[in-house]
Amino acid sequence: MAFESLASDFYGFENQLTEREREFIANLRAALETELKPIVNEYWERAEFPRQIVDVLHGARAIGLGFEETAPFENSAVFRGWVALELARVDASVSTYVGVQNGLALGAIGICGSKEQRAEWLPKLASGEVIGAFGLTEPDSGSDSAQGLRTIATRDGDDWILNGSKRWIGNATFSDITVIWAKSAEDGQVKGFIVPTGTPGYTATKIEGKQSLRIVQNADITLENVRVPESLRLQNANSFRDTAAVLRETRAEVAWAAVGVAVGAYEAALRYAKERVQFGKPIAKHQLIQDLLVKSIGDITASIALCTRVSQMLDAGEQRDEHSALAKAFATARMRETVARCRELMGGNGIVIEYDVARFFADAEAVYSYEGTREMNTLIVGRAITGEAAFV
Q: Which CATH architecture has domain 241-386?
């Protein structure tokens, strides 16, 4: 398929990808435009997940790109960032589904699992045979998960007994497995467990009334004496440092997804500006409208540049927590400003879902907060540059 760069990629960063990577992006873009874009607003309004898109995403091999067991070809972290951008450019919720399935569930097993666990679970997650979720956040523990985790894992012979609760767990209403993070009663360290969702004592209840990422099926999870064999404990997850290693990689891709949300809103606003006629001419001819568009493309371009560099550092083995934290904090802040400008540009039509920007505007609020709030990521970067921790 012929490759055409996004007009919103003002400096042509995407052209730095390999020919094979660009071809993949072009095919994914076409599939999303054909299969997802025409139905996304309908499902967003109903707060339902379009299950048919699962086959499209897994058929396009958009899952498992970062691991040798499941990657269709050798690729870069920059390319995987562009995949996240492309998904979020059409819909942030579907991008979140992929982020949970790929970066969190598959990623947790890929990073913290044994060779045998990787061999068993990664292909199933990549193909869509198994749908995964990632259970870290709790009702009373979000930003302080490193210290405040209340879910407890108690050793019982060759099994572990899990008790506790989780909240805001994406994909959890229909997942086959959930990676549950719990504090060991023996040593107080955080450990990870692959929990089949049909296990007795495991219950997932959909969170209702969301006004952001409405397509994402978030759930409250309760764990009451859930028995998990030692063989389903992630063998290389022995402390929260290992959990953080998973989040370090996914946080950078969330930054890319934030750029995608900004791009989606910008493209919708630009189309509108060219078509909407006021005072006898398209509003794109008005200076104040061009000012909104130029500020938006500037923030998008700066965010792409930052995300490109942090992904290059990941490929080189140089990325640290503060690098991904800055990317996430910066890109989501610029995204929030961009979607607000785009809504402003469209006037009253900016709050009507048929013009798309209202959906991007609402979804941006969740992307701004999940995988580490701006404040927490700011403190991570602040500690790195000053040498002083200011978390409490």
A: Up-down Bundle (1.20)
